[in-house]
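Homework help board

Subject: predicted structure for assignment chain

Our instructor gave us this sequence and asked us to write out the predicted structure in token form, then describe one feature. I got the tokens but I'm not sure how to describe them. Can anyone check?
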Amino acid sequence: MKKVLTIEHAGHGHWVGDGFPVRTIFSHHSHGQRISPFLLLDYAGPAEFPPSDTPRGVEEHPHKGFETVTIVYSGEVEHRDSTGGGGLIGQGDVQWMTAASGLVHEEMHGRDFTKRGGTLEMVQLWVNLPAKHKKGPPHYQSIQAAQIPVVPLPGTAGIVRVIAGSFGGTNGPAHTFSPVNLWDVRLNAGQLSELAVPKGHTTLLFVLSGRIELVSGESLGNAGLASFDQGDDSIAFKAVEDTKMLVLGGEPINEPVVAQGPFVMNSQAEIQQAIKDYQSGRMGQLVS
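My token output:
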């Protein structure tokens, strides 16, 4: 059984644009290489938005050197980027955007969601790219809920939606550039679960809602994060309440990380080049 390294609960939040009230669950700036290959996890909502005729969200901005993964639990998010990629993702859908050599994009509430209002709940995960892929072409994956396989846990413990990687011999639809597991897990109260996770990989467990108790005795509730050591090959817990959580795992990328705003590269010189690329228009532009 993997050993628990840390238990953390999110503090105060902040706004990203005017559409996403988020709490940052972890980031490279605060957690360093121990969360590699992951860089950041923001949890938005649950938040109520009234009907509006004015679009809300984050307007045009660049990214380079990593991937953004957006999972929508409630509401709608509409994305478009300078490669022509994009689309609308709603409840249960995922968008996996590979910025790589650089692009410009925007993320807004869906038009229909804006007009009718409602509850927004989503997470956005940043996944680092190995150096050899940072200069590759940008790419966009729109993953609909129906494309994500659902694997039942033993007994009546719950289910696992396999977004990326593999669980119980079932592969997720997302293409990744290094070994990554991303599982959307729903647990039923009172049930014990043990999940097999790769030895040597980073393993993180994020509870969106509900409460679990780890076998080591620690309790993890709403907006709580547990990190585990890289030894052994399983984690186990009991759902104290019905629980919605993410399990994140991945092979660490043992390369330098230099991050500045929307750019994540391997050196300060590469960051400066990314800024020049954006300012000169080499990352493209959005077309109305």
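Reply (TA_rk): Your tokens look well-formed. For the description, you could write something like this. The mean pLDDT is 96. That's the kind of observation they're looking for.
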